[in-house]
Design brief:
Elements lengths: L1 E7 L4 E4 L1 H11 L4 E6 L5 E7 L4 H13 L13 H10 L2 E7 L2 E2 L5 E7 L5 E10 L1
Antiparallel strand pairs: 1-8, 2-7, 3-5, 3-8, 4-7, 5-6
């Protein structure tokens, strides 16, 4: 079962998509299995990170900007090579175990859509597999 979601993103930042993931699992009726969250964009990504302190999200963006700054040596005409690098480093997907009809996440974990080249209207997919 595949679910498609759309969201409007900021210029850069992490958008909490944990509730959409929980919604997909509930709608699927799967009690035990696997959930894959996939981002079909080359300047965005998906990650699991802390959901208790909102400063973690801004620190994440600041850290990525420090590791992958926009540099004059980049040749990509669109001017967003740093966003492509960030996307590749973080990754396009996450796999989450489903237990008792819920995502098996740690106490402080949430699932985030990472925007590196917005603002944009983006989409992501959630694939639920019984197992």
């Amino acid at each position: 079962m595949i679910f498609e979601y759309k969201l409007n993103t900021p210029s850069q930042g992490l958008v909490d998509i944990t509730s959409e993931l929980c919604e997909a699992i509930k709608e699927s009726g799967v009690n035990e299995g696997i959930c894959v969250v996939f981002c079909p964009h080359t300047t965005a990504a998906v990650t699991i990170n802390e959901n208790a302190d909102p400063d973690v999200r801004s620190d994440f963006v600041a850290g990525m900007d420090r590791i992958f700054p926009d540099m004059e040596i980049f040749r990509h005409r669109e001017g967003n090579s740093d966003a492509h690098l960030k996307s590749s480093a973080v990754g396009a997907s996450e796999v989450i175990i489903i237990r008792k009809g819920k995502p098996l996440l740690g106490t402080w974990q949430g699932v985030y859509f990472c925007e590196f080249d917005g603002p944009r209207t983006r989409k992501f997919y959630v694939k639920i597999m019984k197992g």
